[in-house]
Amino acid sequence: MNCSRMPNRGATAWPDCFGPEPFPAPAPVPSLEIFIVMQLLSMLAATALTALCWGLYGPVLHFGREGMGSALRPFVCVGIAYFLLAVLIPLTLLTRGGERGGWTRQGVLWSLLAGCAGALGALGVILALNFGGKPIYVMPLVFGGAPVVNTLLNAAMTRSFNQLKAPFLAGLILVITGAITVLVFKPQPQPHAPSPAVAVAGEESTPEAAPVEAAPVEAAPVPHLAAPLEAKGERFLEVLLSACMALACWGAYGPVLHRGQAAMGGSRLRPLICIGAAYFLIAVLVPMLLLGPLGDTGQWNFSGVAWSLAAGALGALGALGTILAFACGGKPFTVMPVVFGCAPVINTLATMTLARTPLATLSPMFLAGLLIVAVGAATVLIFGPRAHAPVKPA
After folding, report:
1. Is 256 exposed, middle or buried (0-12, 13-18, 19+ CB in 10 A)?
2. Residue 222: CB partners within 8 Å, gap ≥ 6?
3. What pLDDT does 6 receive?
4. Which residues contact residue 160 at a Cβ distance below 8 angstroms, ignoring those fewer than 6 apart?
5. Cα separation of 39 and 323, whole Å?
6. Nearest 10 degrees: CA dihedral of 358, 359, 361, 366?
């Protein structure tokens, strides 16, 4: 066999005329590009987990509030769920070892502040619902304004205001415009038919109605119906202020949590434990002390507790997804706007499914507002400032 005509494949190539290679070359090591792609996919998966959980949070919590007829009792259940999922389970896993990073004073402080911001944001949502707001427009307002706060606070913490360019400002305008559109064209409650008690009360005014039959009807059902009707009334200013508190706190959540996680060496479980501890202090102990002084008239029942615990579990899983996204290389400038842009869409679909909302009640302008919020959040994601460019050596 003539080897002189063998094509030149380099000095290290094994000639074909010598037969099979006795020591085959080892399998190629995965390149840096593959590692980057896998890290990006992991970050997107964790971000999607957060968007899904936080998008379902509002509708599920609304059912818990309706079940217990209270603003504070669902908050207590949310705090208990956080304590179980974000404190006890991570502490158990942490004792087994293998977790990166370590405890630092600065990391604990920032993570506790992130937990406080998350708990106060949840309280704002609960108050907005308690004042008559509906999750189908309260949650889009919160998730529409939160990326603005997130980006501005992150720019202040990283000193990158000089990177706020025109496309980014246009995205902020889109988010605000979409949020206002959602508020103005929110679905209106459908008028209900007169209740049987009202009809019976009307019959009492007729001459044929016996006085003996009128007394029991007027004494029992009418006061029972007055409380739910009063609770359903929407108090616009209180709903707006509560939603603003929620969007401000949840907007600060990402940058503060990222600072705490970085201070603890990129740990995943330790920031989650701090968040759960803050939730327990704010969402469980404080409301339990205020139930009596504030004259809470709600009732503990299985349905309300179950829905509220489920909402707390969704919130804790969303916090874990945020931490995992940061651990995979995500930044608040990129992770949080994606979450706040996708969560309103998930919220709307979940609310319509759980409440069996007729499609006829959703106006085109309301749906356009949701779309504008999502487009604005995506624009903020794409054109938001990243970080300072590295200083060139002199």
Report:
1. buried
2. 197, 201
3. 52
4. 154, 385, 386, 387, 388
5. 14
6. 140
Please write the tens of the pLDDT for every residue from 312-349: 999 899 999 999 999 888 888 778 887 877 787 787 77
C-alpha span between 100 and 93 (Å, rounded): 12
CB 261 within 8 A of CB 327: yes
Amino acid at 366: F
Coil, helix or strand at residue 99: coil
Torsion over CA: 278, 279, 284, 290 (sign): positive
What CA–CA distance (Å, rounded) separates 113 from 255?
11
Cβ pair 284, 26 in contact under 8 A = no
Q: Judge if pTM exceeds 0.90.
A: no
What tokens were used for 120?
Answer: 């106060």
Element (H, E) at 135: helix 135-158
Contact 268, 104 (CB under 8 A): no
Q: Six-digit token pair at 70? A: 């209270």
For the chain, the 3-state helix, strand and coil shares in percent, each to the nearest 5, are 75, 0, 25
Angle at CA of residue 278, ends 276 and 284, nearest 5°: 90
